[in-house]
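Example S7 (structure tokens).
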């Protein structure tokens, strides 16, 4: 899952080191258009439905946070 997520993110913003970035939203590394693109890609790639309520910095600031979000949505939490 991690490698697939990293590939998606690298396609969107190839210049960002997503392995170490932990403030993707807080530091405006991902803008609103990038976030929409990420959400669409996550929904398709992982068969989940990211809702508006899920669109908070805590869920999208890092790869680890996104993995936690994906896992919780896949497990219905």
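Recovered sequence:
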């Amino acid at each position: 899952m991690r490698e697939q997520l990293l590939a998606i993110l690298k396609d969107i913003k190839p210049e960002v080191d997503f392995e170490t970035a932990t403030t993707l939203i807080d530091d405006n590394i991902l803008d609103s258009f990038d976030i929409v693109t990420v959400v669409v890609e996550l929904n398709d790639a992982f068969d989940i439905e990211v809702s508006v309520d899920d669109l908070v910095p805590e869920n999208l600031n890092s790869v680890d946070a996104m993995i936690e979000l994906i896992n919780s949505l896949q497990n219905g939490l």
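Notes on this example. The chain has a mean pLDDT of 96.
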